Amino acid sequence: SVQAQKEEDNPEKTMEVNGLTPVPDSYDYDLIVIGGGSGGLAAAKEAAKYEKKVMVLDFVTPTPQGSSWGLGGTCVNVGCIPKKLMHQAALLGQALQDSRKFGWQFTEEVKHSWMTMTESVQNYIGSLNWGYRVALRDTKVTYENAYGEFVGPHTIKATNKKGIEKLYTAERFIIATGERPRYLGIPGDKEYCISSDDLFSLPYCPGKTLVVGASYVALECAGFLAGLGLDVTVMVRSILLRGFDQDMANKIGEYMKEHGVNFIREFVPIKVEQVEEGTPGILKVTAKSTMGDQIIEGEYNTVLLAIGRDPCTRKIGLDKVGVNINEKTGKIPVNDEEQTNVPHIYAVGDILQGKLELTPVAIQAGRLLVRRLYAGATTKCDYVNVPTTVFTPLEYGACGYSEETAVEKFGQENIEVYHSHFWPLEWTVPSRDNNKCYAKIICNIQDNERVIGFHVLGPNAGEVTQGFAAAIKCGLTKEQLDSTIGIHPVCAEV
Amino acid sequence: MGWEEMQVRGYPEFVRTAQSYHGRPIFALFCGDKDAEGRSWCPDCVTAEPVVRKELHNLPDQSVFIYCLVGDRAYWKDPNNEFRRNLKLTGVPTLLKYGTPQKLVEEECFKAELVRMLFTED
């Protein structure tokens, strides 16, 4: 067989040619993790605890607008962290308004500086990126800022931003490459539109913004942009928050509408053109109705696409090693031990088929997987009853079944829904809405009225939901809930 | 051109010096004052300094290394001192890349690997 040698200090690295697999005496690493996000880093750090030789490859392909970021993955750089901070910025704006009713006096108009906020947020993210680098180095995990792809069953090619390629071998692999925002595939989308990948580091205030999409990303972004005082419109193709309890989704939409977010329902953009260059410039969006032939046009400073995210699994050489992916979605099917169809290749995080796309889920799955691989553990990741929160202006926390899914699974006659509106005490004095906050639980009548779904719409929904998630995991029943005395005066007592 | 070292004492001198080198990569090591015999009141600083100095040859060209004595122990313990307030320092020794969130604090400064990483990577 002919073997090509790399001109480096490592003559034992060879590329597979003529279909012959060279069997190395030992691999470079016990484990190579492709992707330095929530799942990947958790797995790598855990493996290092068991004295395994681990490498993490992380690389961010810049967005069409040129945005990029450091180690840590989506959550840290362009997801949960900056999102929650900007949501907080918007909440503080509201709090400033409320504060006058509580006696605070200030004469100046309160204004918001996008640049000040973004700089602070990016600074914090930078410290997290650095913290991860220190943590990896300290635990002797090798980190390379390089794009990893399979070239052989146990071999990865890593290409850094200068185009330099290196080969590494490992006994096992974890794919944790995550996802990136989807584009519409219409004229002008990549040239003129931004995505969440660009928003949190945008070096200028986005101005009048059109958000395309009805995902939680779309609604959360639209929510805080409006909260910061910007003119925001959301263009929705059909329903809000697909996959979430629709009763709650509609309440969220109503609240946003009443608080200054414009909605254009049942339209999709077909073209984006630039009217004027600038930071921001002016863009013209042409959209077509999904229900007929009606065409509308609008001008905005910024168009933010939030129509979904696609897994980064198509260009990492999975075909070369025979790892199956869902051709349509790009997701990777795994068994309940996060193992792909190739025994020594595993996957965690957003790329998994049929699993929740959440940071804590990826972290838990990554850690437990590594403990099973190297520490003899047997615990598998529990994907049931995972709590989540959507940080729209009126926050929504949920754990367990939506009402629709519960009806589908157990039958309308076997479930009981208990619900209540509530008025947070803090909202009374500033005369904020008295009929918007809402909570409901869904119980399984046939199983002792076990609580199988928990939904709350109100301030601090995430904080409220976390405790209930633990209770649900313990098998909370309606009776137990009733007999738990409430804390007063808090929203959670409802 | 290589790198150069500046030795300063106290916050105003540090700021003046850092500003005068605006545009070049600036790394700074903050330590407790030294007595007449050259010993610092800060034992971790005593440990860290030789480790850091050994890695200085890794500094990128054009860099400036500012060795800054912060003050005596009483000054440092004051939670409102200028280094804590303005530079957000939480402990000595601190080794940082000025103008970025990249820094090493206390025992992190003992590790040559980490010091080298701070000096050499983006």
Explain how this protein is built.
The complex is a heterodimer of chains A (494) and B (122). With 494 residues, chain A is of the alpha/beta class. Chain A has 3 domains: 29-181 and 310-375, FAD/NAD(P)-binding domain (3-Layer(bba) Sandwich), CATH 3.50.50; 182-307, FAD/NAD(P)-binding domain, CATH 3.50.50.60; 395-483, FAD/NAD-linked reductase, C-terminal dimerisation domain (Enolase-like, domain 1), CATH 3.30.390. Chain A is 30% helix and 24% strand. Chain A has helices at 38-49, 73-78, 80-101, 114-138, 189-192, 196-199, 216-227, 246-258, 318-321, 359-374, 403-410, 425-428, 461-473, 478-482; strands at residues 29-34, 54-57, 142-144, 146-152, 155-160, 165-175, 179-181, 194-195, 209-212, 232-236, 262-265, 267-276, 282-289, 295-300, 302-305, 309-311, 345-347, 388-390, 396-400, 415-422, 437-444, 450-457. Chain A is globular. The N and C termini of chain A lie far apart (73 Å). Mean pLDDT of chain A is 92; it is low at 1-21. With 122 residues, chain B is α/β, with parallel strands linked by helices. Chain B has a single domain, classed as 3-Layer(aba) Sandwich (Glutaredoxin). Chain B is 35% helix and 20% strand. Chain B has 5 helices and 5 strands; from the N terminus they run βαβαβααββα. Chain B has a 5-stranded mixed sheet with strand order 1-3-2-4-5, with helices on both faces. In chain B, a hairpin with a 5-residue loop joins β4 (94-97) and β5 (103-105). In chain B, α2 (43-55) crosses α5 (112-120). Chain A: The active site is at 488 (proton acceptor). Chain A: NAD(+) binds at residues 213-220, 308.
